[in-house]
Amino acid sequence: MFTTHERPGHFIDNQTTPAQGGGRLTVTNPSNGTECAQIARGTSADIDRAIGSARTAFQERWGGLATLERGRVLQRWSQAVLAHQEELARLEAMETGKPISLARADAVTLARDLECYAGAADTLHERTIPYQAGDTVLTLREPHGVTGHIIPWNGPMQIFGRSVGAALAAGNACVVKPAENGSLSLLRVAALGAEAGLPAGALNIVTGLGAEAGQALTEHPGIDHLSFTGSPETGRRVAIAGAAHHCPVTLRLVGKSPQIVFADADAEAALPALVNAIVLNAGQTCSAGSRLLIERPLYEPLMERLSNAFSALRAGPAHLDLDLGPMVNRKQQQRVWDFLSDAQASSIEMAAQGEIVDEAPADGFYQAPVLLRDVPTSHRLWRQEVFGPVMAVRAFDDEDEAVALANGTDFGRVAGVWTRDGSRQLRMAHRLQAGQVFINHDGAAGGLELPFGSVQHSGDAREIGFEALYDFSRLKTVAIRQG
Ligand code: NAD
Predict the structure, then answer these.
(1) Å from CA of 181 to ligand 1 middle
(2) Which atom belonging to ligand 1 lies closest to the Cα atom of 285?
(3) Which CATH number belongs to the domain containing residue 144 in this structure?
(4) Residues 144 and 157 in one domain
(5) How many angstroms separate the alpha carbon of residue 236 from the centre of ligand 1?
(6) Which region, left, alpha or beta, applies to residue 14 given φ > 0 means left and ψ of -120 to 50 means alpha?
(7) Is residue 206 part of a domain?
(8) Cβ pair 225, 163 in contact under 8 A
């Protein structure tokens, strides 16, 4: 079992700093339900200090630094993250419960994010615009200034990397509010950034509760841009708080992503990807493939194979590195239980269930993966995000029905299509409402080169890829008339 008894402070101005009010919050290890750390409980006073530090850094040390130099700092930081991969992975596995190999992969993704944006820092070019004779018109990309980043617990290192990495590369100074169960790895990452040459104040982390430190960040008039990843309810609050002081807000919210398998698909190749799409991180990802649509001739044969695969899945503590770890906290575990008791009350058939291994401590927040068949489209299991290892399956009869079912929720994060028919592949890609469409594989949010966006209630941000740099910069037009 991974354990520490850390009592870290905030990270402000490249210093570890206690909360001004002296408050602390207990972090519970989801693998065994015991305390693993006490983080600083940030208040508006801490946020105020962090924003002041970021403003000075932006004006004096980071915003005006040559892009090449910014890139070099990010590059060194990326190397430091790789060198500390094991330490970072253990911290994140301990506080979130994710299997250690997934936490290691997340550290590598963070390093790759920093490396990618290091290279992109000096490529954020703009245009000259032909206008009237004698005029020269050009557009400039400028950093917002001080950016606020609210990061959830499901992928602290990953989401930090793509959000803060892009913001810093674009020349902003950042204030980060991590989730209560996602602070330890990020505090260590920030310290590595300082060692790699990030100037004091370019990156500040204030830990604490969403309703205290998080809300103070969103309401602070000194923030020039807010980026939020999390639930739609909190996202709405953040957007309203930002609007009150005319601060642009980008939202990365939830999904109910469909995987659509046509009868001509290579089911052999699809099977492990379909399972992974819902089991990865115990289903606690906004791109989880939580709805499966199977064309009727393939329905029973594929369900049989999926049932066998689900029955073999094992949940256990992070250090055992099984198919999935526990849910992040008691609240999330209860949320999954509520959905499953609704399924039972509605007589939805459970086709298969994995196991929780004997070594899993009784006080951990475990949930075995569950496969549900013939889920009615009106049921909330079909329409709402569970954020747990629960897959809802339905049959369809033709392409139009598949599209109607796939698009029939309020969300649009990722969609997967499995078919050998080339023209159908393209048609489906055009017809599906999603930020990313994968054909014959599932790579949700994977590959830093692939921009990741959303539609409808899933949010409006474009993250990952070069496009993320646009979120973290603003356009200025300069028109020069020669006298
Ligand atoms: P949440 O949206 O409340 O928390 C996400 C982040 O927002 C955390 O850092 C939290 O401290 C912060 N926060 C909370 N209240 C805030 C406020 N008033 N102002 C500013 N920041 C605030 O999510 P949750 O309660 O941890 O999880 C609930 C559900 O949210 C999950 O079941 C899942 O559906 C969804 N979720 C989605 C993602 C994602 O990656 N899109 C991540 C986590 C949770």
Answers:
(1) 11
(2) 40
(3) 3.40.605.10
(4) yes
(5) 11
(6) left
(7) yes
(8) no
- Does residue 454 fall inside a structural domain? no
| C-alpha span between 288 and 443 (Å, rounded) | 10
**Could you give the 3-state DSSP secondary structure of residue 135?**
strand
**What is the number of other CB atoms lying within 10 angstroms of the CB of residue 105?**
17
Q: What is the pTM of this model?
A: 0.96
Range of the domain at 291: 258-447
**Using one digit for the tens of pLDDT, what is the confidence trace for 141-172?**
999 999 999 999 999 999 999 999 999 999 99
| Closest atom of ligand 1 to CA, residue 159 | 40
Q: What CATH number is associated with residue 357?
A: 3.40.309.10
Ligand 1 centroid to Cα of residue 254, in Å, is 10
The reply to whether 263 and 362 lie within a common domain is yes
Q: How confident is the model at residue 444 (pLDDT cuts 50, 70, 90)?
A: low
Q: How much is the pLDDT for 208?
A: 98
Do 221 and 264 sit in the same domain of this protein? no
**Phi, psi for residue 363 in degrees, rounded to 5:** -90, 5
Atom 9 of ligand 1, nearest CA residue: 179
Mutation probe of ligand 1 site: the residue of 150, 187, 390 with most atoms within 8 A of C-beta: 150
Backbone angles phi, psi at 194, to 5 degrees: -65, -45
| Residue 448 pLDDT class (50, 70, 90 cuts) | confident
> Quick one: pLDDT at residue 466?
87
Q: What pLDDT, on the 0 to 100 scale, is given for residue 462?
A: 79
C-beta of residue 115 within 8 angstroms of C-beta of residue 75: yes
Does some domain include residue 452? no
Taking CA atoms only, the protein residue closest to ligand 1 atom 19 is 215
Q: Which of 179-188, 312-321, 428-437, 441-450 has the lowest mean pLDDT?
A: 441-450
| Domain match, 337 and 357 both | yes
Residue nearest (by alpha carbon) to ligand 1 atom 42: 230
Judged on CB neighbours under 10 Å (0-12, 13-18, 19+), 72 is middle
Give the strand pairing for 314-315 and 249-252. unpaired
417 and 473 fall within a common domain: no
Is a pLDDT exceeding 90 seen at residue 207? yes
167 lies in the same domain as 285: no
Give the mean pLDDT of the chain.
95
Asked if 241 and 279 sit in the same domain, the reply is no
Please state the rounded mean pLDDT for residues 274-285: 97
Distance 153 CA to ligand 1 centre (A): 8
Task: Indicate whether 3 belongs to any domain.
Answer: no
Pocket of ligand 1 (CB under 6 A): 150-152, 154, 177, 179, 210-211, 214-215, 218, 229-231, 234, 237-238, 252-254, 286, 332, 335, 385, 387
Domain count, the chain: 2
- Give residue 216's pLDDT band: very low, low, confident or very high (50, 70, 90): very high
- Given a contact cutoff of 8 angstroms between Cβ atoms, the answer to whether 118 and 80 are in contact is no
* Whether residues 249 and 268 fall in one domain: no
